[in-house]
Amino acid sequence: MAEWAERLTGVRGVLLDISGVLCDSSASGATTIAGSVEAVARLKRSPLKVRFCTNESQKSLRELVGVLQQLGFDISEEEVTAPAPATCQILKERGLRPHLLIHEGVRSEFDDIDTSNPNCVVIADAGEAFSYQNMNRAFQVLMELENPVLISLGKGRYYKETSGLMLDVGGYMKALEYACGIKAEVVGKPSPEFFKSALQAIGLEAHQAIMIGDDIVGDVGGAQQCGMRALQVRTGKFRPRC
Amino acid sequence: MAEWAERLTGVRGVLLDISGVLCDSSASGATTIAGSVEAVARLKRSPLKVRFCTNESQKSLRELVGVLQQLGFDISEEEVTAPAPATCQILKERGLRPHLLIHEGVRSEFDDIDTSNPNCVVIADAGEAFSYQNMNRAFQVLMELENPVLISLGKGRYYKETSGLMLDVGGYMKALEYACGIKAEVVGKPSPEFFKSALQAIGLEAHQAIMIGDDIVGDVGGAQQCGMRALQVRTGKFRPRC
Lengths: 242, 242
What we know:
The structure is a homodimer of 242-residue chains.
Chain A: H1 2-7, E1 13-16, E2 23-26, E3 29-32, H2 36-45, E4 49-53, H3 61-70, E5 80-81, H4 83-94, E6 98-101, E7 120-123, H5 132-144, E8 150-153, E9 158-161, E10 164-167, H6 169-180, E11 185-187, H7 192-201, E12 209-213, H8 216-225, E13 229-232
């Protein structure tokens, strides 16, 4: 315990990953990970600031928070940093009109984005929508652009559903990068800008916060590269060897 | 002409790519590229040795040669180096039992391969069969193996059909490499072993042969790395900038 107290010296806030830390997902819904509802409640009763920092890109923020509230979590939309809203902001700032290769569940986030005559491609964890036809269309849009811009909501290798490990958006990002000879821009963990925006929302510096996640690269590595401390849980996609 | 004669000094044989050089493919079939039937006929009348060296992995060798014969080409199965037969030989030599993520058109090549209780994954240009579900199954098979082996029939970025550019197997290979944290073994161009087996079949050394293809990486780069000369045609997937 003394060791832990030392490691946590100066920590004033916690960034919490959602999938694999608070809950596991399945085709039929989500289930809480044992102890996580009470852990969030305790954190919120403590003097620590709490922010949720997720790469979830299959659901809209509203739907995601709704699911978590139903599971018993004390959480609101304003407390979550998620890649789809961050992407919309970038698209607007840079005058980008995306071709969207995304899950139907997250489409509403892009309702007020102009998608006519696309000048970039946005991919997210599209699940079954990662068909050959849809991937090929995204590829063709990129190849027709003089300056192809590919934005990827996260670059996770895989995530865990109750039925098993599932391919995440990262592989599909790599496929388009390779086929088009380009480099994607990642919005979401482990992008430093994404962690910084989560820290900014709770008014903390990197050295004052700890990230808790199940992904050794996206959560732990990304946070550490930003100057944060980080802790990997043994739930979710955690595997003894990665 | 003098310059060409110089460049071709000592050339005793020609390796010919098929798709994009002899013909273009489409969903409904294949069409010859202008002048290619006569060019093959002239090469065969010349003292040069001729071998066809393809990464075609949507069709069986028999079907591919049948299509080319119907288009008027002087070609037989024995004259073609193709990745599926080369893969079957490797699988047998190493006692590998593949999970196959391939196009239905090439499945017959694997008829005498044991696919029970898979200990590796073989992917080829699967086209529409590159569904999320099929990719995820291949991913899960690899993640369950202690020593995951992924064999990819070629690693092309894209190819050209009459309807436009199409994603080739390379991107999907990259997706699985990234998701599983592994490196695939490529059977087909630009693998040196593949070029060597084509050269061996016509009894030539690398410096005695020239490769003619439309892919700057798979055909031209691969052949040059083997010590061959190479020539890129301006048909098929050729683009002024790659």
